[in-house]
Design goal:
Allows the formation of correctly charged Gln-tRNA(Gln) through the transamidation of misacylated Glu-tRNA(Gln) in chloroplasts and mitochondria. The reaction takes place in the presence of glutamine and ATP through an activated gamma-phospho-Glu-tRNA(Gln). The protein has about 450 residues and is an alpha/beta fold. It contains 14 helices and eleven strands. It has helices at about 1-10, 20-35, 80-85, 130-135, 155-160, 195-205, 255-270, 285-300, 320-330, 330-345, 350-375, 395-400, 410-415, 445-455; strands at about 15, 50, 90-95, 140-145, 160-165, 185-190, 240-245, 275, 375-380, 415-425, 430-440. α3 (about 80-85) links the parallel β2 (about 50) and β3. The longest helix is centred in the C-terminal third of the chain and has 24 residues, at about 350-375. Bound molecules: glutamine (GLN).
């Protein structure tokens, strides 16, 4: 807690810090342990977690990074948060994000700009930038984020931490503010694969409050990790790795490409076979993602009408309430997405945009499926560059969207992907971290975490 208090003025990971409440909870825990209630306190007893502010937390502000939800205190915890609390974890605060998850730098928050702990003139990535910077700056042990198109993996890469986007449906979305429901997943950050695996086991699993949550068994991921025994020099013998060709070409920083190639040779040294694999539909994923995500957002965000949640406005009629609350409550990027999505879904344009994007989604899914029949995992960078400067892309939305090229396809296909730090490029005072993305078949989180742990 003292580290959090010391670092927060420069990092600004949290929209809401509950440090005093966390301290009381920790004291209460100490008291219970001292009085012999040791078994009653759960496997994450006393572990400080940060929670992205688009996940509902009972009696704590939950803004989604938006003015329109200023003052909103949900009456319930999101399922993932409830499960962490039941395991004994202490929610130390709500982390900053791009408004409703729409953005790649966290600059789109209505409240504050979060900085990258490796270089405070740079962005932490986004949209879960606060959750990534909080773990990177060791303000909390682990954190929750959400990933619709890369929002866990890209900030993990920018901040040099581990980030996991689970299979669609692996973690309940109940209590997650919907952005694009067919793509949204709750994801985990940790400073090690072990920590990330530990919280995934706690938050994953079927939930009757989310009909898209899977009832597949949840393994104890952390206990399945095998440490790399240095005497066994080839722990990945027989393992097949496909390196996605389209992710190492034009537009990708040379330092990033060489970090990924070094990671590939490391995987080879550990015994695996690494081959280049081409996914021809890869570049089509980006425009398809932005059509689909905006379309779903335009429908999902209609709930923010100025009546049901948050900020209230006084107005004479319904249209005025809608107009007032949305004009003043929503930021520029969110308005733009709603307009784009409404346009793409409108009767005359549906076939040209939404329907075609859905067709591309099917192509992307099929090409991943084919490749994952031949390889155990696919690898790529998590982002085309390391963290860039605050303000650099804020006025160029297309350049910002282009930065999501490495991650959006995985959401279109609903696959799990793990990002682990794999190298550095020049920049800042001590270099800037680069993340390796490992993509697997549905529900192969255990496999990804095992490889990530050996790699680490
Ligand atoms: N940057 C992407 C977007 O703005 C992804 C965001 C996310 O995963 N929430 O849509």
């Amino acid at each position: 807690l003292s580290r959090l208090r010391r670092t927060e003025p420069s990092v600004r990971s949290f929209i809401h810090v509950a440090d005093a409440a966390a301290e009381r909870e920790a004291e209460e825990l100490d008291r219970r342990i001292a009085s012999g209630e040791k078994d009653a306190v759960g496997p994450l007893a006393g572990v400080l977690v940060g929670v992205k502010d688009n996940l509902c937390t009972a009696n704590m502000p939950s803004t989604g990074g938006s003015r329109i939800l200023d003052g909103y205190r949900p009456a319930y915890d999101a399922t993932a948060v409830r499960r962490l609390r039941e395991a004994g974890a202490i929610v130390v605060g709500k982390t900053n994000l791009d408004e409703f998850g729409m953005g790649s730098t966290t600059e789109g928050s209505a409240f504050q700009v979060t900085t990258n702990p490796w270089d405070d003139s740079r962005v932490p990535g986004g949209s879960s930038g606060g959750s990534a910077s909080a773990v990177s700056a060791r303000q909390c042990v682990v954190s929750l984020g959400s990933d619709t198109g890369g929002s866990v993996r890209q900030p993990a890469s920018f901040c040099g931490v581990v980030g996991l986007k689970p299979t669609y449906g692996r973690v309940s979305r109940f209590g997650l503010m919907a952005y694009a429901s067919s793509l949204d997943v709750v994801g985990c950050f940790g400073s090690s694969v072990f920590d990330t695996a530990t919280i995934l086991s706690v938050v994953a699993g079927h939930d009757k409050m989310d009909s898209t949550s899977s009832s597949q068994d949840v393994p104890d991921y952390a206990s399945e990790l095998v440490s790399l025994d240095l005497l066994e020099s080839k722990p990945l013998n027989g393992f097949r790795v496909g390196i996605i060709k389209e992710t190492l070409g034009e537009g990708v920083d040379t330092g990033v490409v060489s970090s990924i190639k070094d990671a590939a040779s490391h995987l080879e040294q550990l015994g695996s076979v690494v081959e280049e694999v081409s996914l021809p539909s890869f570049s089509l994923g980006l425009p398809a993602y932005y059509i689909l995500a905006s379309s779903e957002a335009s429908s999902n965000l209609s709930r923010y009408d100025g009546i049901r949640y948050g900020r209230q406005v006084s107005a004479d009629d319904l249209n005025e309430i809608y107009g007032e609350s949305r004009a003043n409550g929503l930021g520029h990027e969110v308005k733009m997405r709603i307009l784009m999505g409404t346009y793409a879904l409108s009767a005359g344009y549906y076939d040209a945009y939404y329907k075609r994007a859905q067709q591309v989604r099917t192509l992307v899914k099929e090409s991943f499926k084919g490749a994952l029949e031949r390889y155990d995992i696919l690898i790529s960078p998590a982002a085309p560059s390391a963290a860039y400067k605050i303000g650099e892309k804020i006025n160029d939305p297309l350049a910002m969207y282009a930065g999501d090229i490495m991650t959006v396809n995985v959401n279109l296909a609903g696959l799990p992907a793990l990002v682990v730090p794999c190298g550095f490029v020049e920049g800042g005072a001590v270099g800037l971290p680069v993340g390796l993305q490992m993509i697997g078949s549905p529900f192969s989180e255990g496999n990804l975490l095992r490889v990530g742990h050996i790699f680490e």
